[in-house]
Amino acid sequence: MNEKIKGVNLGGWLVLEKWMSPHLFDGTAADDEYYLAQDLPAAVYQARISQHRANFITEEDFLRIASLGFNLVRLPVPYFVFGDRAPFIGAIAEVDRAFNWAEAYGIKILLDLHTAPDSQNGFDNGGISGVCKWASEPAEVEFEKSVVKRLAERYGKRPGLYGIEVLNEPATAAMFSDMQRRFPPRDPAKAAGSAPISFDFLYQYYRDCYDLLRPLLPADKVIMFHDGFDIDKWEDFFKQSDFANVVLDTHQYLMMAEMKNHDLSLAAYEKTMTDFGKKIAAVNQYVPVVTGEWSLFNSYTAGVDTNGGINPTQQEFGGATHLSKEELRHAYQTLWKTQVDAWNQGIGYIYWTYKLNIDTINEPAWYGWDCWALQRVVDKKWLAPQDI
Amino acid sequence: MNEKIKGVNLGGWLVLEKWMSPHLFDGTAADDEYYLAQDLPAAVYQARISQHRANFITEEDFLRIASLGFNLVRLPVPYFVFGDRAPFIGAIAEVDRAFNWAEAYGIKILLDLHTAPDSQNGFDNGGISGVCKWASEPAEVEFEKSVVKRLAERYGKRPGLYGIEVLNEPATAAMFSDMQRRFPPRDPAKAAGSAPISFDFLYQYYRDCYDLLRPLLPADKVIMFHDGFDIDKWEDFFKQSDFANVVLDTHQYLMMAEMKNHDLSLAAYEKTMTDFGKKIAAVNQYVPVVTGEWSLFNSYTAGVDTNGGINPTQQEFGGATHLSKEELRHAYQTLWKTQVDAWNQGIGYIYWTYKLNIDTINEPAWYGWDCWALQRVVDKKWLAPQDI
């Protein structure tokens, strides 16, 4: 892409996160899709999933994203996208439709393999909370590669394809203990053996995926690697390899900064993000860097210390401070511009996320979480249109 | 309301129309909610309805409608809204939430009782296609009044309430044969005894509802009557009554004009709608008139004669002519402005509808039907913002 990436994630559509579509989990004890499929009768699980997929993201959303001036969507897909991992339901028909929408409305798709069997990170969005064993299961590592390969075979030549990200957010040591704090396993026995993913494993997995994909993809299609939550670990890897058209994906959330004893103030966030822009500029010298996930969400505007992004499906927060409408708009517009300026030290940004179905009016505990949804950021005028 | 009504219908949410959310009907032979509830196992029906209601209209939609500058939503509700008509599922919790959203975002709600047991019109949106027997069943007429009364008791004092429309689109003789052509009954035995609703019945029903509602509603809340598809039948009724704060609702669709051997051209539509504006101005001398349903949809921009609005769930149309993007925008912007100017000869307008979940890209038969959705009209720039 010749211009900067101005992108948005289609989170919560084909890969579920309970907090983004809580009604899908109504009446169950499930915190993730693994247990949702276990807890519901098969016909009801099927009905919920099919209605969700038909409604959560539609043609209208691609139309609107394009009309706002965005040029790319990152599309998280689960490892069972091809429908070969019962009881989970394949989603390839939805991906096919998404490519037709993207091409009709002139935006690109970054396919993002967001989950792996037994999970690469233990997040709810990895498919099963508190479990992180995939990397220790060679057959499942091979299965994951087969999904990457089949995605390339099916979509490699589509004009709407920007590229393929071979694995989302592998939890290396820097993130592992935080994952354990935020996402306790429902079945500790199933979590036994979970461990951080090593960089040596990750380097090898990425090399294998590159060797698999490069011959299948036209030269203009990108192969993307997530940084495993440590952008400092990649200089030798890229300098010692002879990769063509690869991009490094880094995810930067204000709530991650907050976990490092960060001051919960606008000025502090601005400084941190500006500094991170300088870091991106340096890394971008040896590999193009996209900030593939980021958000306006922070504890200052939420009015309560969220301990690194704990949300109301996990814990109720009382006594939040509500800023005035004007203060809120000023804070969000400032954070949007500061962050986009930082991300544009690399090749651009992809907001997390386009949509979430929470209700801040009838369930006031969600106050502040609505800024996760680009739809609402636009409608609330929390970004100045010239800053897209 | 001191300003003109700039409204939009929340069609297809609590009252289903198959063509507006076809996926809800996947795998069934049902053409309406009556048979959807019969054709699906109870748990699957429940799952589909609850997911649909939680997703089709949300807080974000109220936020967006307000941010666009609209000041009212018309909210169709079914006769089983209070949950006392199994197997249909009550929807009062959704209406409660909608009032909280409307009040938070500063827009008004017109509650519209859109269906009746055994139907007042035989349309799919009356709940059961091809059946129109309600008016001949005194117990069901009393039931319908009880719903009107309970709505007034529950929402009468809400600041977000604009008013209550006591019955949507009763099919008088002017519409009855067209209904029979467009909506054949699935079970002819069940349709036996269907007949047009007489104006004498309607006058009496409206008087009864007025007498029921006026003592329950604060003086500033409107009581609204649909014109039964004949705006010329109301002069004596209003002049001979001593009603306080009532409004007459007329529904005007280009496709209805087309049925009267209308020329399928932009100029012809413009003339018809301008003439109708003069009619509204005249009627508005003795009762305030709102155009409570209208749309940009027409056979000229659809590129095929739709025979009065037959849609692709009823019949596939081949060989549609596609206008250029510029021609389409010109046609729609012209039709928007011409029609809004006409409706503003009365007290304002309410577009049909805010949203529909059709896919014009993957199912090209839907080309042209997307203009039914205000969301898409805005995103496609088919209305000029100053004309809202």
UniProtKB/TrEMBL annotation, chains A, B:
Location (main, coarse): secreted
Locations listed in the record: Secreted
InterPro entries (alphabetical): GH, Glyco_hydro_5, Glycosyl_hydrolase_5
Gene3D superfamilies for this protein: Glycosidases
GO biological-process terms attached to the record: cell wall organization; glucan catabolic process
Cellular component aspect of the GO annotation: cell surface; extracellular region
Glycoside hydrolase family domain segment(s): 56-299
DNA repair found in the keyword field: no
Gene Ontology molecular function: any one: glucan exo-1,3-beta-glucosidase activity
EC annotation from Swiss-Prot or TrEMBL: 3.2.1.58
UniProt protein name: glucan 1,3-beta-glucosidase
Organism per entry: Limosilactobacillus antri DSM 16041
Lineage of producing organism: Bacteria, Bacillati, Bacillota, Bacilli, Lactobacillales
